[in-house]
Recover the amino acids of this structure.
């Protein structure tokens, strides 16, 4: 697949299934993520791969980290438990924010976000489907602790990867001119 086709035609796919994502495919996804822009080469990103039975354990973490989860209706509890089972592979994107005189925390988070976008594009190029999810569980300190994150780390998202089991959405038609304005400097 041509690189520009990947960049202009990729869409998120939420309905994913097996077979498992191969080790070679996983490595390619991570390699793509590691090519993201990274001011001062801080390498702020790291990734956890969750597959097989570990996905059920992640679902239990999601449930038990939810405030007052025991009071949730059974269907909502089951939804949290089943969330990681929606794809054969879940990649947890983590940003390790470091103190740096020239690279603020925001730039480090953006670098990890750019890595996630590279990963999504690589999945598409490999013929896989993927979707970037976040929500309350991504910002929950109990989830971060259960996953072993350090105090200076935060979850940027959960990337669900699998084989599409639905027809991808049509690529939205956007007019470039609706998003671009030519700026002209005024004489000072």
């Amino acid at each position: 697949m041509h690189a520009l086709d990947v960049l202009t035609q990729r869409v998120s796919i939420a309905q994913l299934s097996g077979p498992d994502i191969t080790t070679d495919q996983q490595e390619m996804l991570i390699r793509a993520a590691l090519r993201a822009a990274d001011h001062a080469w801080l390498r702020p990103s790291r990734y956890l791969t969750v597959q097989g039975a570990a996905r059920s354990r992640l679902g239990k973490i999601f449930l038990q980290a939810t405030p007052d989860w025991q009071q949730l209706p059974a269907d909502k509890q089951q939804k949290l438990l089943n969330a990681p089972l929606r794809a054969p592979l879940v990649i947890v994107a983590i940003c390790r924010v470091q103190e740096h005189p020239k690279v603020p925390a925001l730039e480090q988070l953006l670098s990890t976000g750019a890595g996630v976008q590279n990963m999504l594009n690589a999945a598409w190029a490999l013929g896989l489907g993927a979707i970037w999810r976040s929500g309350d569980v991504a910002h929950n300190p109990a989830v971060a602790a259960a996953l072993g994150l350090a105090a200076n780390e935060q979850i940027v998202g959960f990337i669900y990867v699998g084989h599409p089991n639905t027809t991808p959405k049509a690529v939205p038609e956007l007019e470039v001119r609706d998003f671009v304005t030519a700026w002209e400097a005024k004489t000072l």
User: Anything to note?
Assistant: The beta strands are 16-17, 45-51, 89-96, 129-133, 153-164. Residues 105-125 form the longest helix (21 residues). The two ends are 48 Å apart (CA to CA). Helices lie at 3-9, 23-33, 54-65, 74-82, 105-125, 141-146.
